[in-house]
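Annotated sample (chain length 153).
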Amino acid sequence: MAAGGAVTTASTAPASAAAGRRPATHAHDGWGGGAFRDPKGPRARVFDLNDASGDPDGLFATVHALLSPATVVTALVTTLNSDDPSSTPATDGVPIAREMLRLMGLSRSVPVYAGSDVKLANRTTPQPSDGARALIAEATRTDTTLPLYVTVG
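Output written by the structure step:
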């Protein structure tokens, strides 16, 4: 967190991640004699939204996506968790998601953004956040042909 409680966004990802390709080194490369690598490379981009400060099931799903050789996770967005009594549940999830990435050896290749800390007022009024802006930027990229999937955990 930056001074004043503002959440800072992740640093710029390496060129390989920015171009829609998985970085050359994976945390799981040493498991079981090496990770499977699809000779055609990743087949899709995944933009993952998750309540990182909530139940661990969403974190397991995120780890699964990060380990998949068929996808490249382009960003993680921490989201509102209705069970979190904090007034900043999405913001609270940022350090949890960053720690998960650090433990996997991926802290420099996947940016983490905070989603909104408050619920939508209604179905037609957007709630601006760093995560929403990052999703729009990813969806409008023109430097990759990989299809984009948004997962919500």
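Annotation: Residues 1-33 have pLDDT under 50 and may be disordered.
Annotation: The first strand starts at residue 44 and ends at 50.
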